[in-house]
Amino acid sequence: SEPPPKMMENKVFLSFAFYSTVLIVKMYVVAIITGQVRLRNKAFANPEDALRNGGLQYYRQDPDVERCRRRVPGPPAHRNDMENIFPFLFLGAIYSLLEPSPAVARLHFFVFCAGRVVHTLAYLLRLRAPTRSVAYSVAQLPCFSMALQILLAAAPYW
C-alpha cells in the first residue's frame, strides 16, 4: 500500500477540509430547498420551466421563494454564501499552510462554519432578530483572524 499523501497528514488541513465540505453541502441544501419551494408554490424564474409546469402564469416571483433566495436586507442567499464562504475557503487553505496549532485552527473553522449554519437557519426559520446578524458577525471573526495571520506571515515577502 502506498503511503498517504503528505496533505492527509496535516491535521489542520483535514479539519479545514471537513468544515469546508460541510459549508459546501449547506450551500447545496439551500439550493435544493429553494427548488422545492419553487415547485410547491409554482413560481418559476424561467419561462420554459413555467411552461413545463403549468403555464406562463407561473413565470413569477413568490415571497416564499424569494425568502429562500435572499437575505433581507442583502443579496440572494447563494450570493451571500459566495461572498462569505468563498473567501473563507481561500483564507482557510492558506492559513492551513502556516502550521497553526491544530486546536486553534479547528476553533477558527468551527466558529465560521457554525456561524454560517446558524445564519442560514435564522433566515429560513425566521428566527428573531438579532440572531442572524449576530451569527454573521461571529462568523467574520475567524476570517479576520486568519487574514491578519496570513498578512503578518507574508509581510516580509512583500
Automatic annotation (TrEMBL):
* Enzyme Commission number, as recorded: 2.5.1.18, 5.3.99.3
Q: What are its GO cellular component terms?
A: membrane; perinuclear region of cytoplasm
- Cofactor(s) the protein needs: glutathione
**Any Pfam family the entry gives:** MAPEG
Q: Which GO terms describe its molecular function?
A: glutathione transferase activity; oxidoreductase activity; prostaglandin-E synthase activity
Q: Give the domain of life.
A: Eukaryota
> What's a GO biological-process term for it?
prostaglandin biosynthetic process
The pathway this protein participates in, as annotated, is: Lipid metabolism; prostaglandin biosynthesis
TM ranges = 12-33, 104-125, 134-155
Look up and give the membrane topology term.
Multi-pass membrane protein
Q: Which UniProt keywords apply?
A: Cytoplasm, Fatty acid biosynthesis, Fatty acid metabolism, Isomerase, Lipid biosynthesis, Lipid metabolism, Membrane, Oxidoreductase, Prostaglandin biosynthesis, Prostaglandin metabolism, Transferase, Transmembrane, Transmembrane helix
Q: Which SUPFAM superfamilies match?
A: MAPEG domain-like
Q: Which reaction does it catalyse?
A: prostaglandin H2 = prostaglandin E2; (5S)-hydroperoxy-(6E,8Z,11Z,14Z)-eicosatetraenoate + 2 glutathione = (5S)-hydroxy-(6E,8Z,11Z,14Z)-eicosatetraenoate + glutathione disulfide + H2O; 2-glyceryl-prostaglandin H2 = 2-glyceryl-prostaglandin E2; prostaglandin G2 = (15S)-15-hydroperoxy-prostaglandin E2
Record's subcellular location:
Cytoplasm, Perinuclear region; Membrane
Q: What does the similarity note say?
A: Belongs to the MAPEG family.
- Summary of the function given for this chain in its UniProt record: Terminal enzyme of the cyclooxygenase (COX)-2-mediated prostaglandin E2 (PGE2) biosynthetic pathway. Catalyzes the glutathione-dependent oxidoreduction of prostaglandin endoperoxide H2 (PGH2) to prostaglandin E2 (PGE2) in response to inflammatory stimuli. Plays a key role in inflammation response, fever and pain. Also catalyzes the oxidoreduction of endocannabinoids into prostaglandin glycerol esters and PGG2 into 15-hydroperoxy-PGE2.
Q: Which PANTHER family match?
A: MICROSOMAL GLUTATHIONE S-TRANSFERASE 1 (PTHR10689), PROSTAGLANDIN E SYNTHASE (PTHR10689:SF9)
- State the protein's name: Prostaglandin E synthase
Q: Which species is this UniProt entry from? A: Asarcornis scutulata
Tell me what gene encodes this.
Ptges
